[in-house]
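Q: Protein A?
A:
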Amino acid sequence: MPRNAEVIRQWTILRDLEASRRLTIDDLAGRTGVTTRTIRRDLEALQTAGFPLYDELIDGKRYWTLEQRAFKRLDDTGFTLAELSALYFSRTLVECLASTPFQRDVSSAFDKLSAALTPGMRQFLDRLPLVIQAKGMAPRAHDDRTERDHVARLLDATLHHRRARMKYFSVSSAREKEYLIEPHRLVYAQGGLYLLAFVPEYGEMRTFGVERIRSVSLLEERFTPSAVPEDAFAHSIGVNEGPPEHIEIAFEPRIAPYVRERKWHASQITTDREDGGVVVALDVCNDWALRSWILGFGPLARVIAPDTLARQMKEELEQARLLYAQLE
């Protein structure tokens, strides 16, 4: 804990100096709630790391200042020192969220960005993940080179409105199928990269998991793009497209505090019950993601509307019960 507090305090000092132009040691001590001796050690540590801090005497008082245009390379990028440092710090978060095909490019971009920092500054910033982290999904095993090639072709087709032929492994039919597609958008969501493409054969927009694409070949045929919602999968808790339905789920008092404090979907309306439970109303599509989410709460959640979904959940729970019946 003391080490984490030190990192936060020193970062606060940098931000305060940048925002205020100049501050005394007493000012910094008052803002951070530590002694002036501690502030002096912090300033010395930041200077040693390479941050351009210096002091000057004005009207008999000694002020500390952060030089915001100390590095030519920072001037070239147009970033302030705090912006560059914050962006470098975000590396772990961005790499965690980046789709696997882009991880190498994201890492390369941050390597170039970090070149504008001194080794001491990088060492200081690399300590910040001690106080905030992002947990991502474990990278899956796949042929990175092949998938990167698929992504590059799909981006080309999307940007230039070119039709494409795609071989795709369909989970629902458990076989490889060939599609004529009109790629509209690539979306990274829930640890995977997805393609939104119009399929003329079916006359509708469909969602494809990029990792299940076996091959992509671009055609010279062009297409006129259809209107695509600004927010992909807007009506799904997961990564599906479909018309929304009004869903109501009652949660037991034991799980209510956890449910109440989360925002599960933009359409969510939460209503407290007299018994301490809570009812969550959502306007989302009835898909696997929704049913899986509800099942994840086990006996602490019950669908109260619509009846069709309630019956579906009852059937799935009965099937699950039968799987465990052999243990009786």
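Q: Protein B?
A:
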Amino acid sequence: MMKTDLPALPSPGSKALRNSKLEKYCRLRAALQPRAQAYLEAGWNDRSDASAYSHACRLERRTGVRDRIAYLSRQAEEMIAVKRERIEAQLWAIADGNIADFFETHEVVQRDHTGQPMTEPKCNEITGEMETALSLEKRVRPKLLTDLPPDLAKLIEEVRVDNHGRLIPKLYSKERANKELRNMLNLNAKSDAADVTKLSDQELLQTLAQQARELGIEIDLNYSFAQPKKTDE
């Protein structure tokens, strides 16, 4: 039986150029270096920037060089998108983090002021008879760091030791994460539209008059706002 699945052809420009100078030039250009600067930094000498620019333009007319720059540029854009997505996901995880996920409840024996265990009457579920049992109370303690799943462990900025020798996690700042998210998603952009509810009567009339002039409309704004009437007592 003949095989119909042929190996995929490599993308144009996916292989590094054999000439080390050309390869370095392509990488510099993919990193948005200007032509003349990339040409000189790659290792070629020239009399002037204008001459270096001319030689660089000639280099980029080569199919192999042009394909290599295009390929590296696409890779850089994809890497930036992946990194941005990872950073945004981490910021959302910090913003949505719940400190309760890092603690657990456990029972301890209650003790009196002398340190002796306290007891309390308890009904035996099997015999139905009353018995004396240790008095227990629920307390909260931090979970062992080694027991935390990776998605929770990466939300911890630092660990502090309390008076009992327990490791208390301190999470990354929610406030800082929210601020970074707002900047990343451009949620801090202010609207240019004026809030007319905050304008005084005079400012509102001036705004209406200005809009009318811009639209080429003649309107008569020679009126005053009515004042509340006083009633006779």
